[in-house]
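yo

u said u wanted the structure for the complex thing, so here. seqs first:
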Amino acid sequence: MTMLRFFAKGADLLAGAAAILAGISLLFITAVILIDVIGRYFGSPFYGARDLVQMAAVIVVFGGMAYADRNGGHIQVDILEQVFSPGLNRVLTAAGYMIGAVVFALIGWNMWAAAEMSALLNMSTNLLNLPRGPFEQITSILAWATALCLVERVLDRVFGAKGAK
Amino acid sequence: EEHLKFAHWAAPNHTLQPAIIEPFSKAVSQATGGELVVDVYPGGELGKGPAEQYIRAVKGVADLVWGLPGYTSTQFPLSMIVELPGVVDEAGSGYDAIWRAYDDYLTGEYPGTVPIALWAAEPNLLIMGSKSVRTLNDMAGLKIRVSGEVAGKLIEALGATPVQMPATEMYTALQTGLIDGVLTGASAIRDFRLDEIANVYVQGPQLGNISFYVVMNEKKLNGLPENMRAAVLAEAGPALSKSGEDNWNRVAEEVLAELEANPNKTVITLNPEESAPFDAITLKVRDEAIADLDAKGLPASKVLSAMTTAAQ
Amino acid sequence: MSGVGIGVAGLAVLFVLLALRVPVAFAMFLVGLGGMAILNDLPSALSLLASESFSVASSAELIIIPMFILMGNVATESGMSRKLYDSAYAWIGSIRGGLASATILGCAGFAALSGSSVASALTMGRVSLSQMNRFGYSHRLSTGAVAAGGTLGILIPPSTGFVIYAILTRESIGRLFMAGILPGIMLVALFVLTIWLIAIFRPADAPAGERTTWRQKWQATIGAAPITLIVILTIGGIYLGVFSPVEAAAVGAGLSVLFGFTLGEMTVSKLASAVMDTVATSSTVLLILIAASVMGPFLALSHIPAAVGDFLTGLDIGRYGVLMLILLSYLVLGCFLEGFAMLVLTMPIFFPVIVSLGFDPIWFGVVVVLTLEMGLITPPVGINVFIVKSVARDVALIDIFRGVFPFLLAMLAAVALLILFPSIALLIPQTMFG
Ligand code: NA
Ligand code: NA
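structre next:
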């Protein structure tokens, strides 16, 4: 029980930290685009703005994954929710989180492999030549963090006191 | 019967079809008595992002892919020398230039795959909404859409402003005047319907060429029965690449001829004298690019001379 | 089992997983991954997880999504959305369903700003849903109107849908854009008519407000001036070529923050909450788009669209019969596929058939985009419905699907009208281009 609460707390912190990183990236993107638009209007755009925006966007998207789950959840088709018994709904919710945890673990694992491949191929962004590998490694870590948070949700549904929701 | 998956993101009737896919499928089918079949997955059916195209071949999502080295230029620093201003012109043709350098210098840029065709597009030109360019002064402050680092440096060196944007946004951007023009080859005019909104076309100066690859997953190739493997390898290389380049040039000529015949469009062809001030700048950018690569320990000068020295 | 058989089995599994309340994105990942592993091999299937995740998340075209959500959230947090609806309410609140109709008009305006249905539904959803509910509109009507109204994003130019259709078929982008205008206006009118009918038959869904005095009307209008100015600046900037639609969203968000702080309505903690909410919504939406693009290659390899095409071209049922079946298969495929993936998979098969039957390719482009719009709101995989759900967390998905149903009928009516009177689409392009 305490273990579970400890885990839940840790997952909350992890999801929050990743989301703050995502939020900073989002503000960064907005600022870069604004500087680029204003600069271009006066003849000197932000060189390579799009490179920065695209890489930061990946952090926004994956940084927010666990946070999105903990603040309303990823979208489900709830058409049969009323038909199922509370117990069954609880099992199905846990199974859904489990699938999500597996998917994110697989994304994390393959994203790390992709980073190695990117290093091998010397992949980078178009104008600024920002290497792609490090961004894939960040994405991989964020995906693993999401997987961990989803595992916590599974445990909470199976052993937790909160019951079906 | 064995099937090869050929993936690209262009339209099904894109120049790639008659230029590469048809001759290749016909040849391997004939050589194997119809045993080896090429299935085409156009329009990004097997995955959309052009930058991930090479990875898809390496990972076996597709067996063969078409792509632009320019989308991941740091993977192809030496192959992309062919895109620098003047190189295709001096070499006579882009595919010949690439294959002359391939065995000695370029093999390392294609890990996990076997290049089936490598070629260059028609020369880049300026596709302008309404503004004319006749002298260097006309370039000052123009906003030009570019797709890669070298093109960006060329546009900056010429006094204009390089702008990045996805290809699907070019049309609206030209229409609203967000950009004044696009730097690319003439065949793209048809691909992205730019003729509808671009009224001025400027050619003559050395503005480089875009290049292309078709690569095949190495494991897949080596795993094929010997007769099929031989059929693929017999077709791969300069001959197929030539077909690619010839078709691209043919389309570009058709497009330019249509534009010249159209009274509402202006095609400006700068003569060598008018082009000289432009070329002085763009060839300097090329020399700097080569020197940069040399400084990084890459044999860029050697590749350049291999590309531009005709085989004896 | 054949590729088609595996494809159909995959879709059946998807259906079951969705019914068992597996989150939509996870179900699509699972089916895409499994299908690809069977039809190709496991390593390549796994590699898709990384390549598609990264390429969708970093796509230059999709940055528009977080940017517009941010704009909508900032406008909401700083009270500007509220003032906009106060103003709309003062003018037309006394008409039954007036606010919902105003929302449809807002969606149409937003569609002229962005080329994307997802961006339209997200922003308008953020700005309008809680406002409509504040004035007593039912969840069902408000979410239905936003989900359906948002689809206008790809019918009213500029439109990513038309650009992709044009590139795949080599038709004129300019003609397609022009061809989308009248059908877009017609669909807006049909949506408004739908709301009017709902207001008559289910008055509780769309209550009429009290009459307001002229003084109240003008006060509310002045209150809405900042957000009106922001909208004018962003739309104006696009049409004057100062920035692109994607950049317009960032400019709009920036201006909203600036105005909010200047007018004293914005605080750092409100901004933080707008940002965090944007992060959560963007991740939810992008995850579904990533999952859709992991499932795309599986469906391509299964050759389901090609099998449908072969079947259709073999039938002897006249040109309108074939057209009907093609549109029907779009509706069915639209239940499972994301719109652009569907376009890419089917256009090579259906387009030559349509042209050989003598239908006008520009007209067909409009009909197809309209049908794709329907796919965005049909169950079980209706991207726009998911989008609305992502901003209206407490509304049951089934209620949104129910709310969307009358609008779906309006869209069917629009398709029927386009088939009966092709000049609705062709009049403007023919007048302009000859
Ligand atoms: Na639009
Ligand atoms: Na649907």
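The two ends of chain C are 51 Å apart (CA to CA). Chain C has one domain: 3-433.
cya
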